[in-house]
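quick one before i forget lol
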Amino acid sequence: DARPLASLDVTRDRGLFRENAAGQIENIYTLKVINKTQQPQRYRLQLDDAPEFRLQGEHTLSLKPGEILDFPVSVASTA
């Protein structure tokens, strides 16, 4: 059975962008993560091949079996 073990949808916040307290430009996204397994799972968020951007805040999610989580994420420019 090749059923996916997780599902991830990304929705960008309605605002164009904002400037954070450090003076960086950031965009806010909501991740909808679904654990499709019968076991608790941990997921680690990271940006690949994007050295000019970084994730703000928490980068690890823990979901119970079958849990659906809406998780806000901020991505800031380091340039």
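fyi Residues 8 and 46 are 14 Å apart (CA to CA).
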